[in-house]
Amino acid sequence: MNLAAWIRSKDALLEESDFLALDALSLAWTTYFDYSGVTFPISTKALALRRFAHELTKRNQTFVPQKTCDFMDAFLHSPRYQNVVFLEEKEVRGEGGAQFFAFLFHIGERFVIAFEGTDTSSLGWKEDFMLTYCEGIPSYPHALAYVKDVMSRYEGEFILAGHSKGGNVASYVLSQLQDDSRISKVYSFEGPGFYRKDLFDGKAERLSKVEKYVPQTAMVGVVLSPFAVPHIVRSRDLFVFQHNAIEWVIKGDSFVETKSRTLFSKGFERSMNAWISSLSNEEKERFTAIFFETFEKAGVKDFNDFFSHLFTAFPDLSKTYFGLSKEDRAFFRKTLGTFWKASAKSLFGY
Question: Is residue 72 left, alpha or beta, with left meaning phi > 0 and alpha meaning psi from -120 to 50?
Fold first, then answer.
């Protein structure tokens, strides 16, 4: 079964039950919605009665809107989560290129801070690209400052969680806190690695708090430095769509795990990381600037809309690309060419 089906099967209140990885994923996935007009704090039970619950499709910010809305409908009407309190939110958009959003949840005697992963905006995708050449992406200082602020205002145990970039951000915060004694666990659901390879050097005890999960055909969680040994889980989707963690296979109260990732995932990891390593930081930054400048000049601000209207949007995108300077076009083509070379070398040895 998937996450929505699992939620609908549970009757016991979360505050009276063990906190599971499935609960961490559920809370993390709620960040992929627009909560404008909602006044916090508010319990899940109360939120289910508000206008928000009737506008899930409009408020969804993922590439799998129907599945995400089905998950949220299950979450809002679940006995398990009815007393979970959406205590407060923190959002920073555009400042220095940040796409940052976090929820603070109150559950019994514990608190959970869930970080949003990449939404469908070009802003969020651009920050993802920055992971390959920046020691600190724009979201990092906002996340660290928010966790410090929250922990100074509330006493008790804290859990950090996030999907995709959110899992990366949660793990980063753990690595940087001066005192992590009140952080009991960090859940990363296919969060990518880090540009820096030394974030957890000499911090084995902290690293032991990170519980990372990737699907068997992982393509996001295997990019950059592998800082934690992940649990490998089965998914109902294929290839890159396995990044959709709410479709990971569940049996009982756990994900169904497998011993190893697919050959495709391992090949993709070698190819992508070899390509990233083959480019200088200046080249990666320039490639990112050209890529997103092309989309921005074509009027693309949301990739969900772009892919939904691909046949009508592509001509404008193509026109914008050919409007770039010859030097920029040549550099862009050359950089893409190095990816295919790195892929051939990683996969076939030449």
Answer: alpha
